[in-house]
């Protein structure tokens, strides 16, 4: 039966948790590398536009479903009646599965990040073989570090909304910002960094309406705002009726976009500083090396050539990435855990353990078949499931919720909303424009 659900203690707590979910590897890694390869500042401009014109309205749909439902993803998405309701629930299951699969590969990458954070420390302690184990691709190392990262994630989630998620997000997000700003300040003084800065900030205007650029920017915006997997939905469900959802949604979007922008100020100048030291930063096609080479070869090569300061920088850089990763992973784990708890199957502790173990099993399977599965799982979840579930969420809010119910839901925390521009435009957005645009991304990925 209805049990007392957790709730964020403060608006700030929600903001830190939701921004923590949004700010992740997608910001500090995906965004800078996409920008570098998509016309520099032109991508930044298009990303900003799409984040506010498309991703924010879709984020609002997720938050509304969650706060309205006051329940886990499957229950909250069972909107409307009959077949609609069953379809919503099914999409909820799909979102939950997607969250679990994303967490399974995210934890592998985050495990590497932990390894790279610890390596310079073990080196300094004279444990060179440990340091090289930590940074060498190998099955045992991969799964051991994944297990460590998942255990950390579980340790936070087991504490619940206030005692775990909110508490740790409000500690870790300021730390992330400090590390980021500190690193930017340092990297921008390095020789060669100014060239990176101008590549990053100079828009190639002729590319701004490039179809590929727009689609990449849109996909990036959806992934970055954690849409379509129920992470934002579940955080929204821990909000009380007095909270102003449109305002909170704007703030989360602003923080997410702001941190992505800052990450670009760090990563791209750092790459050009590495180039200045003779590190090859372009691939065979003349594009900036992105994906894993950027993170695990180029930047460590830069740090490696800088002596003692390089070690400190490397620890700070990978700690930053790890922090960004963990505040995202807790939001993913919360999606299935809240479901298991609210179904009454298990208590929170047992649910966290059971779901964590199941996700570890998926990570193990991926790690054991790395070549075949890693890229495939990333592609299926981020390019297919995420946009598809986000699409269903928009449709549910746009068509299965009555205009009256929708207004009531938003009005409870924003009494003047009915006369606002937001209310005139947004319902049409979720009804038509967002679904259409998401369908476009989806069609493109097919
Ligand atoms: N928003 C995260 C990032 O940018 O790295 C990724 C993410 C987090 C996706 C949480 C999905 C999710 F549920």
From TrEMBL:
- Short name of one Pfam family: SNF
> Where is it chiefly localized?
membrane
Checking SUPFAM superfamilies in the record gives: SNF-like
Is Transport there in the keyword field? yes
Q: Which InterPro entries match?
A: Na/ntran_symport (IPR000175), SNS_sf (IPR037272), YocR/YhdH-like (IPR047218)
Its record classes its membrane topology as: Multi-pass membrane protein
Q: Where in the cell is it found?
A: Membrane
Q: Which CDD domains match?
A: SLC6sbd_Tyt1-Like
UniProt-recorded name of the protein: Sodium-dependent transporter
Source organism (scientific name): Cobetia amphilecti
């Amino acid at each position: 039966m209805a049990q007392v659900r957790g709730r964020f203690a403060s608006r700030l707590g929600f903001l830190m948790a939701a921004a923590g979910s949004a700010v992740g590897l997608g910001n500090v890694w995906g965004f800078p590398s996409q920008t570098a390869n998509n016309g520099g500042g032109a991508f930044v401009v298009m990303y900003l536009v799409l984040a506010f014109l498309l991703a924010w309205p879709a984020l609002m749909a997720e938050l509304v479903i969650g706060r309205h439902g006051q329940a886990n993803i499957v229950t909250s998405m069972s909107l409307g009646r009959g077949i609609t309701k069953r379809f919503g629930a099914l999409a909820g299951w799909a979102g939950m599965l997607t969250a679990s699969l994303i967490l399974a590969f995210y934890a592998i990458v985050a495990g590497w990040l932990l390894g790279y954070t610890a390596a310079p420390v073990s080196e300094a302690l004279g444990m060179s073989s440990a340091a090289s184990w930590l940074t060498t691709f190998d099955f045992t190392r991969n799964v051991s570090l994944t297990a460590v990262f998942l255990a950390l994630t579980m340790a936070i989630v087991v504490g619940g909304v206030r005692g775990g998620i909110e508490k740790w997000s409000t500690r870790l997000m300021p730390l992330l910002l400090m590390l980021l700003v500190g690193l930017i300040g340092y990297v921008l003084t390095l020789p060669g960094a100014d060239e990176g800065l101008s590549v990053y900030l100079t828009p190639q205007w002729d590319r701004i309406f490039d179809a590929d650029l727009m689609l990449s920017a849109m996909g990036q915006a959806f992934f970055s705002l954690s849409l379509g997997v129920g992470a934002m939905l579940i955080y929204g469900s821990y909000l009380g009726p007095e909270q102003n959802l449109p305002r909170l949604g704007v703030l989360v979007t602003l923080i997410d976009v702001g941190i992505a922008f800052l990450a670009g100020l760090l990563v791209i100048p750092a790459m050009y500083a590495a180039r200045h030291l003779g590190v090859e930063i372009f691939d065979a096609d003349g594009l900036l090396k992105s994906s894993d080479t950027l993170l695990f070869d180029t930047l460590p090569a830069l740090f490696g050539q800088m002596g003692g300061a390089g070690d400190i920088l490397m620890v700070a850089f990978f700690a930053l990435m790890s922090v960004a990763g963990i505040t995202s992973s807790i939001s993913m784990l919360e999606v299935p855990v809240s479901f298991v708890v609210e179904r009454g199957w298990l208590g929170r502790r047992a649910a966290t353990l059971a779901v964590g173990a199941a996700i570890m099993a998926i990570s193990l399977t991926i790690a054991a078949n790395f070549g075949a599965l890693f890229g495939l799982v990333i592609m299926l979840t981020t390019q297919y499931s995420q946009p598809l579930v986000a699409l269903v969420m928009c449709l549910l809010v746009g068509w299965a919720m009555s205009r009256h119910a929708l207004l009531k839901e938003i009005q409870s925390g924003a009494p003047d909303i009915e006369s606002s521009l937001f209310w005139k435009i947004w319902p049409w957005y979720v009804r038509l424009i967002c679904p259409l645009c998401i369908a476009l991304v989806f069609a493109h990925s097919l």
